[in-house]
Every structure is written in structure tokens, then in C-alpha cells.
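Listing S7. Sequence submitted for prediction.
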Amino acid sequence: MKKLLVNASAVLAGFMISSPLVAYAQSTLPEIEPRLDGDEETIILVIENVVNWMFALAGALAVAYLIWGGIQYITGGTKGAEAAKGTIINAIIGIVVIVLAYVIVQAVVGMLT
């Protein structure tokens, strides 16, 4: 049974590594396009692109922190579970703050354009 599990895991891992879907994971990040003409709309667009990129990075870090808390919870035992609960709660609070900040920034940018 153990050999079957190891072989199935190896096949699944090989499929996941060779799958082209992994290459599309980075296509959702906003791109920063350089604009050099310097008018007011261009400056707002550049700031909006930079802020969107920063929110994407912050969201990815918060999700990674949440995953790390889950790993700690699974592998930590009794004492590790308590620390992991704090990590998970902090990650969820961070995700909520990031989403709310994104909504506020989009509202302000909408008012400016």
C-alpha cells in the first residue's frame, strides 16, 4: 500500500510539474507600463498600476502566511497548534485589511478619473 501511495504521488507530482497551467499562474499580476508624456492622466495611471501591483504582492504574501500557519497547525502538536491559530488569525485579518484598502484605493482613483 505504501509503495502504491508513493508511486501515485510521484505520478501526480510529475503531472503537476509538466502541466502548462502552472505557467499561467503569473499572468494575473498587473503590469506596469512606462508612460513618459507626463500629463495628469498618465501620472494617475502609473500610480494606479504601481498600487495594484503592490496589492497583488501583499495579497500573495498574506496567503503564503496563511498557508504557513496551516502547516504549523498540522505539524506543531499541542503547543504549535496554539501558535498556529494566532498566525492564521493574523493572516485572515491581513487579507481583510488588504481587500478593504484595495476597495478604498479603487474608490479614490475612480473619483480622480
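Caption to Listing S7: primary sequence and predicted C-alpha cells for the chain studied. Residues 34-112 form one domain. Helices lie at 2-18, 40-75, 77-112.
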